Q: What sequence folds into this?
């Protein structure tokens, strides 16, 4: 015989002390056991049943779970019928005292075997029917999928209802937001239809449609990520041509200045720029060793002189040091000085420098632009942003990009001559 007190989570010791506490008469014990029964049914049956119905999508698994919960409920009901009254408790105690162990084993084995046989028979029947239905549905689905895929193929733009011409005019952030919004709206609508439709073939078509939407999103998202920083293709030809035509000698207009080289008196090199490596730490605890290796002086098409910094950024990736050369008008030395003296806003600018401008994604993207990593600006709301994230570089940034490309080409030619 099962332990009815344990099944219903009844504190048996508390009931045995009822004679010591006068207020614990048989009516109070009955009420206490009823409360235990109700609470057990709620926690062990009702709540799990609701969770199973809401979370288990496989019909066979759901049926198995509900059958087990029905067994638990019947067990609780049997236990309550036995100890729910004073007479029942007395008979239960007497029976247990007469032959507790033998009686328990006999009833347990007989009941368990009977329930097991019954449950197994029903389970085998359900499983066999489910296997047949599953095979039939799989055959239908495969035929439908093949037919669905043979339709006229649509582009990712068609699938996501995006006008390609208008989409190409957007900035990177606007493209990313547009893609995400389109995907979420379409998947939400498809999911609503899926929940409302019980027909197998209709559900199969909706599922294929949802997969198609997800694949189209991933394809376009990858495209915009890969082209995010590829400004060189857009600006390189015209800008370099303009700068070359404007200057009689590239060497006189595009100057690379390195430590210990002679400099013009009107533009002396700040030797503090070259005093060893500067260490930055980002939010992922990534240590960046930043070394200024050169200054690039250039004269643009408007005969305006400008300066860029060429940095060597070294960091630890997969247990090995990796270094990349990038170019930017941003002065790391100035930002670190402002941070050290506690200038207002310096910490936010430092964090953006380490986490965004010198992020792995931006460094990788800069290599498409001869190492030009761009600058840091503030939007209309005062938030920092990367200039390379703009859909189009402003004229000043275009000149910087052109100067960087020319310098990279001069370095390449010099290296080839030295071989």
A:
């Amino acid at each position: 015989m099962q332990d009815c007190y344990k099944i219903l989570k009844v504190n048996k010791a508390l009931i045995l002390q009822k004679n010591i506490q006068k207020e614990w008469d048989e009516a109070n014990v009955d009420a206490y056991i009823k409360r235990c029964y109700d609470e057990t049914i709620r926690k062990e049956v009702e709540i799990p049943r609701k969770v199973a119905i809401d979370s288990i999508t496989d019909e066979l698994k759901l049926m198995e779970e509900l059958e087990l919960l029905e067994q638990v409920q019947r067990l609780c009901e049997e236990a309550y019928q036995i100890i729910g009254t004073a007479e029942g408790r007395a008979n239960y105690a007497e029976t247990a005292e007469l032959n507790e162990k033998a009686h328990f084993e006999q009833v347990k084995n007989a009941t368990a075997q009977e329930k097991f046989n019954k449950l197994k028979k029903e389970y085998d029947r359900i499983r066999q029917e489910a296997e047949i239905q599953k095979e039939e549905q799989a055959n239908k689905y495969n035929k439908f999928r093949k037919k669905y895929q043979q339709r006229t193929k649509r582009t990712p733009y068609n699938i996501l209802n995006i006008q390609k011409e208008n989409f190409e005019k957007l900035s990177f952030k606007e493209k990313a937001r547009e893609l995400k919004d389109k995907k979420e709206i379409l998947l939400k609508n498809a999911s609503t239809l899926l929940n409302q439709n019980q027909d197998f073939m209709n559900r199969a078509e909706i599922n294929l449609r949802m997969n198609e939407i997800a694949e189209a999103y991933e394809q376009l998202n990858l495209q915009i990520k890969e082209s995010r920083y590829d400004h060189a293709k857009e600006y390189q030809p015209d800008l370099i041509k303009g700068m070359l035509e404007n200057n009689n000698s590239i060497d006189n207009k595009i100057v690379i200045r390195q430590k210990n080289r002679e400099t013009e008196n009107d533009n002396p090199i700040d030797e503090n720029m070259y005093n060893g490596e500067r260490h930055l730490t980002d939010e992922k605890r990534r240590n960046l060793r930043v070394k200024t290796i050169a200054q690039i002086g250039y004269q643009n098409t408007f005969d305006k002189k400008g300066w860029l910094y060429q940095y060597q950024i070294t960091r630890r990736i997969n247990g090995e040091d990796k270094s990349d050369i990038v170019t930017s008008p941003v002065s790391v030395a100035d930002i670190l000085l402002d941070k050290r003296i506690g200038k207002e806003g310096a910490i936010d600018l430092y964090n953006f420098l380490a986490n965004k401008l010198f992020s792995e994604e931006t460094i990788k993207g800069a290599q498409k632009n001869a190492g030009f990593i761009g600058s840091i600006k503030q939007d209309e709301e005062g938030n920092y942003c990367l200039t390379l994230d703009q859909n189009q570089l402003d004229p000043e940034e275009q000149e910087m990009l052109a100067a960087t490309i020319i310098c990279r080409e001069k370095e390449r030619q010099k290296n080839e001559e030295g071989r």
User: Anything to note?
Assistant: The chain has 15 helices and seven strands. The longest strand covers residues 287-299. Residues 86-149 form the longest helix (64 residues).
